[in-house]
Amino acid sequence: MSFIFELITSFVRKMLELLTFGGKTLKNTLKIYVKTNTGRTLTVNLEPQWDIKNVKELVAPQLGLQPEEVKIIFAGKELSDATTIMQCDLGQQSTLHAIRMRPPTIQREKLLSMSFEEEEPTGTPTEEASKPLNETLLDLQLENDERLNITDEYRVRAKAHFFVHCGQCDKLCNGKLRVRCSLCKGGAFTVHRDPECWDDVLKPRRIPGHCESLEIACVDNAAGDPPYAEFYFKCAEHVSGGEKDFAAPLNLIKNNIKDVPCLACTDVSETVLVFPCAAQHVTCIDCFRQYCRSRLGERQFMPHPDFGYTLPCPAGCEHSFIEEIHHFKLLTREEYDRYQRFATEEYVLQAGGVLCPQPGCGMGLLVDPDCRKVTCQNGCGYVFCRNCLQGYHIGDCLPNGGSTSAPNSCEYAVDPNRAAEARWEEATNVTIKVSTKPCPKCRTPTERDGGCMHMVCTRAGCGFEWCWVCQTEWTRDCMGAHWFG
Question: CA 485 to CA 380: how far, in whole Å?
Answer without folding.
Answer: 17
